[in-house]
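Entry:
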Amino acid sequence: MEDKQMNYNYLTAIGKMQINDMEIVEELGLDPAVAYTPKINSAALDRAMELAYEGHIENGMSPKEAKDIVATTKQNTLESIREAEKLAGMKLIK
């Protein structure tokens, strides 16, 4: 029988989407050690914000505008993760 590991990504934890932590690791190029731990969400969020910033700059946004948008997006996402923690009844971010 296959040993099934617990996914900690917040989308799966609240039942919004069924995504394996390792899929997130591979998609974002994260350290595999964060998979199946609460560290997945902060690592994925940091990487996603780096990519968003780069994308905004490539699309002609000023560095300040890009930084401001990314900061707001990151804060909103952290709030969503904190709400997900309440719904899931478990720690989802370190």
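Residues 63-88 form the longest helix (26 residues).
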